[in-house]
């Protein structure tokens, strides 16, 4: 190639990197025409595909990509085949207006992505790599480009012939009862929230002049709310189609598109659907880099299986098939029906929280910003409450679907790798986005792996073996107590069960899980951990004791405590006092003094996570340096999305603000900080912040121990007041 064309190629690729697509197209078209079959011409053509796609010329990108699929270069052909899939999914009509939005790859913002968003940043880098590196660069675009490549997977085999796992006709009864209980809990929470809101509105209207309360709000909401939920259940597939298309950028993918990523997944879907007499499931894809898979609908014939582009790119053929098999399990077990209703209720609430947060961030007046921000985070708490109605169902249904997936594919090791790669991919996406994206959090309840568990497991995995990292989940005898508020069962426990299936089928497990009995952990530590909650039943027991003593004293005509039998509120007083005493008993052990010579640094973080006998109360003083990640602005007013990214990985942070201070922890997001606090090992390892210091010397103190003391004293005073009031 002449020096003129070589400089033109460099200029075109530079313009592409700078997002000057029209200039890039003008230059690269000349180079591609004159150097058709040379490496430089191929490189120019790849750059043109990206430029066409990002400038809105999807037909041009598709036409050129189809030409590249005929290339003699295997790597070029593979790149073109994989790039064609997102370009051809739900191809825009010719009449649709084209808007150049300055595309950002895998943008997880509130806007709906266009089809070319499926071209990843790494593919762009590969497209503009130097000519001599073209071949090696394209190899790197292949599936599994996340941190998973740093891990030496054992690639344990699958069984060729297997006996179905033992089951009985009663196996699904607990899951069905949980699904029914989830529906009832969702209905009850919605009804109570409506009663609260309607009552609040009418109370305001009563106090305002010239206004009358709305009589409709005084009526019983039970009949029409039940009717609404059943209607939502009936139309959930189509309503969720609309929500996912408009909010998440969902598009259809056919069998041929899925077949390019996983031949086995198509075979599994076809075989099982044929066996059950179902229609082939409707397949959907989301333009999201984080690996996700969800299923929604109300009947098997209109079920939708949705996966993200990140899942298809980061998992291998058999691993994708294993995930699709678990989604078939949700359809077979019918647990997807109530979860679809839950999504229909929670997604609009979550969007309201985001919109109010954005509105608050745009208000210049501080009082107005704080007022709208408080309402936004109140809506977030409502979303958490609604989502919480399905926590237990979400945990249990994943155990059932894992077992079903193994039974269908005979590949427990593939499912183990899939779950762990999903955790790694989710952690990688959070690192890249520097926050938990709204898509990830709003869909978390239906995802195969929870994003909070993925934080540490997925990011620390390259630095410590999975065998060590997962031991806490299945060896600690009290580990399940700490998943009560989790959306998913512990990954280690799921891997443990899958490895048992592998050994029962006489195949080598992917992870060498120790099948010994759980460790012995001091019961005193666990009781001290749950002391505030143990204090509640002890307080009630004390109230019963008071009642018995009064009856005995009354029978013996010694004492007549009339208030005990006239006002049973004394039980509430005893309950509050019991909670307070338990909290005070735990404070010193929960927040021990952090001594400088005993403080652990980030080099020890992996070992702290791998300690299988630790409980949250067995905290370790740490001082870590890293980048503070999380959502900025009002949407993180409660500190719900705070993480520290250090050299070892990600770790969750807990922070409680003083309130009213001029410096907020959100101001340090995106900066290098030093965090001192108490590291706690639980289902999701976290650090309770004591102090956070920026490089400029600004320090934020987190008064968690003080607020705990205030809470304990306040509840004790309240309980004592109730008892003394009589």
Automatic annotation (TrEMBL):
<dbReference type="InterPro" id="IPR050083">
    <property type="entry name" value="HtpX_protease"/>
</dbReference>
<keyword id="KW-0479">Metal-binding</keyword>
<dbReference type="GO" id="GO:0006508">
    <property type="term" value="P:proteolysis"/>
</dbReference>
<feature type="transmembrane region" description="Helical">
    <location>
        <begin position="374"/>
        <end position="393"/>
    </location>
</feature>
<dbReference type="GO" id="GO:0004222">
    <property type="term" value="F:metalloendopeptidase activity"/>
</dbReference>
<keyword id="KW-1003">Cell membrane</keyword>
<feature type="transmembrane region" description="Helical">
    <location>
        <begin position="336"/>
        <end position="354"/>
    </location>
</feature>
<dbReference type="GO" id="GO:0046872">
    <property type="term" value="F:metal ion binding"/>
</dbReference>
<feature type="domain" description="Peptidase M48">
    <location>
        <begin position="289"/>
        <end position="499"/>
    </location>
</feature>
<keyword id="KW-1133">Transmembrane helix</keyword>
<keyword id="KW-0812">Transmembrane</keyword>
<protein>
    <submittedName>
        <fullName>M48 family metalloprotease</fullName>
        <ecNumber>3.4.24.-</ecNumber>
    </submittedName>
</protein>
<feature type="transmembrane region" description="Helical">
    <location>
        <begin position="221"/>
        <end position="244"/>
    </location>
</feature>
<keyword id="KW-0645">Protease</keyword>
<dbReference type="GO" id="GO:0005886">
    <property type="term" value="C:plasma membrane"/>
</dbReference>
<feature type="transmembrane region" description="Helical">
    <location>
        <begin position="526"/>
        <end position="548"/>
    </location>
</feature>
<dbReference type="InterPro" id="IPR001915">
    <property type="entry name" value="Peptidase_M48"/>
</dbReference>
<dbReference type="Pfam" id="PF01435">
    <property type="entry name" value="Peptidase_M48"/>
</dbReference>
<keyword id="KW-0482">Metalloprotease</keyword>
<keyword id="KW-0378">Hydrolase</keyword>
<keyword id="KW-0472">Membrane</keyword>
<feature type="transmembrane region" description="Helical">
    <location>
        <begin position="568"/>
        <end position="587"/>
    </location>
</feature>
<keyword id="KW-0862">Zinc</keyword>
<feature type="transmembrane region" description="Helical">
    <location>
        <begin position="177"/>
        <end position="201"/>
    </location>
</feature>
